[in-house]
């Protein structure tokens, strides 16, 4: 885990607060952001008539991405005469490339993609550019071979992590735990930039809020609940004498998977502070009225990201409005007492 200075953390938090202050989308101009972007053939002029936009998603069966696809379709319905072609890529980069080639061959008007692996970014961007089809990245930033990033719709990973870590620190202090009898498990896909930003932000925020930072144990996962649960077993066994556990991760799957492993091993919910990221899985225990180690979660709305991406893409295609380099959606902490009123979809 990288050491992040308190001053830099505070600075990022202030910047993050500006980004998440609105649930609408905040478009940052390329000039003000200092970023180069691949905006595609924006100069080609607006299109009339029916539009077809491909939305290619990794792990499209996860609730967050289901919500995202639904948000994209809702935005399309509001705009009118827009067809959304949703494709589930799973975690297969080869499938991502073949499906990208397929929608390009179908001559879709625009492409939004959540890549299974950021390393295919240059290939994805080049293929869309060669076909003259505008492309937008969703959730995970991608860049071309020169390092220029594609327009992006999603969340500020560091700010998200800071909110998770801040809530975990608040609950930790409230519980009266000490570093000597506590471990923090941080579960995430370690080769994914969005994940490292989130968990590093969580650790930095937690460390700034408390004077006795417990040891952080990193677990590499594929971001699924099953993998997190399986990988956590060895860590729990190796730390049999630990009384209390704090858990966070890249997403709800990673966090709830670890919490499940802890509870299955005999750790009482009262000795677990799990703070998820997504809320779509943590809410299941709350909806069932269960005593659980899942104490809170950062609610992120996949629907808002999907809506933002489609609104931006249609704005480009119909009005010639350049894709915003970065679009940031709102987030907030929820728990067993307020998740329903905040609009969390729990399926």
From TrEMBL:
GO terms for cellular component: outer membrane-bounded periplasmic space. Residues 53-318 form the Periplasmic binding protein domain. It comes from Cryobacterium arcticum. Transmembrane segments: none annotated. It is found in: Cell envelope. Belongs to the bacterial solute-binding protein 2 family. PROSITE patterns: PROKAR_LIPOPROTEIN (PS51257). GO terms for biological process: L-arabinose transmembrane transport. One of its GO terms (molecular function) is carbohydrate binding. InterPro entries: AraF, Bact_Solute-Bind_Prot2, Peripla_BP_I, SBP_2_dom. It comes from the Bacteria. This is Sugar ABC transporter substrate-binding protein. PANTHER family: ABC TRANSPORTER PERIPLASMIC-BINDING PROTEIN YPHF (PTHR30036:SF7), D-XYLOSE-BINDING PERIPLASMIC PROTEIN (PTHR30036). Its main location: other.
């Amino acid at each position: 885990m990288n050491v992040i200075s308190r001053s830099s953390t505070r600075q990022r938090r202030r910047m993050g607060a500006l980004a998440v202050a609105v649930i609408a989308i905040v478009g940052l101009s390329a000039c003000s952001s200092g970023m180069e972007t691949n905006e595609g053939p924006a100069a080609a002029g607006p299109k009339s008539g029916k539009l077809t936009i491909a939305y290619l998603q990794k792990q499209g069966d996860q609730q967050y991405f289901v919500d995202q696809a639904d948000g994209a379709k809702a935005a399309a319905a509001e705009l009118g005469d827009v067809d959304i072609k949703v494709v589930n890529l799973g975690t297969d980069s080869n499938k991502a490339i073949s499906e990208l080639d397929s929608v390009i061959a179908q001559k879709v008007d625009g492409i939004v993609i959540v890549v299974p692996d950021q390393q295919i970014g240059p290939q994805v961007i080049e293929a869309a550019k060669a076909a003259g089809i505008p492309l937008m990245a969703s959730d995970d930033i991608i860049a071309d071979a020169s390092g220029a990033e594609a327009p992006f719709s999603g969340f500020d990973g560091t700010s998200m992590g800071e909110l998770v870590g801040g809530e975990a620190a608040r609950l930790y202090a409230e519980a009266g735990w000490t570093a000597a009898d506590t471990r923090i498990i941080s579960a995430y896909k370690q080769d994914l930039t969005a994940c490292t930003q989130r968990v590093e932000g969580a650790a930095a925020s937690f460390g700034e809020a408390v004077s006795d930072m417990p040891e952080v144990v990193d677990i590499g996962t594929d971001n699924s609940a099953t993998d997190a649960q399986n990988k956590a077993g060895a860590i729990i066994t190796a730390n049999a004498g630990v009384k209390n556990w704090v858990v966070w991760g890249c997403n709800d799957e990673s966090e709830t998977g670890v919490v499940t492993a802890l509870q299955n091993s005999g750790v009482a919910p009262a000795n677990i502070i799990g703070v998820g990221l997504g809320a779509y899985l943590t809410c299941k225990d709350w909806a069932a009225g269960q005593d659980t180690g899942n104490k809170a979660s950062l609610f992120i709305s996949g629907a808002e990201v999907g809506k933002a991406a489609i609104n931006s893409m249609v704005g480009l295609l119909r009005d010639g409005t350049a894709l915003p380099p970065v679009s940031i959606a709102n987030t907030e902490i929820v728990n067993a007492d307020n998740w329903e009123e905040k609009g969390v979809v729990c399926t």
